[in-house]
Specification:
With 78 residues, the chain is mainly alpha-helical. Helix content is 51%, strand content 5%. Helix 2 crosses helix 3. The radius of gyration is 16 Å and the shape is elongated.
Length: 78
């Protein structure tokens, strides 16, 4: 098998690091359909591979979770 072109190698490595909607759903403990809906509405960071193909960078998802983390329960006042 011939060696992989450097551009393709880095692209393949990047793809291996991307998460699917199923993986994100498992991480967030929500249905996969919720992840898809959030993606369509732009509520969660995505990487568009095509018109119907979406993936997620683990670092983007971690940062998104951190931004949504609060120190007090929602609806309470300090």
């Amino acid at each position: 098998m011939p060696p992989m072109h450097p551009d393709r190698a880095s692209s393949a490595e990047a793809s291996a690091r991307l998460m699917t909607a199923k993986q994100v759903a498992e991480l967030l403990a929500v249905p996969k359909t919720r992840v898809w809906s959030m993606s369509r509405r732009g509520e969660i960071p995505t990487v568009r591979l095509g018109p119907r193909e979406v993936r997620y960078r683990p670092g983007d998802i971690d940062a998104w979770i951190a931004r949504r983390t609060t120190s007090r329960p929602r609806g309470t006042r300090s």
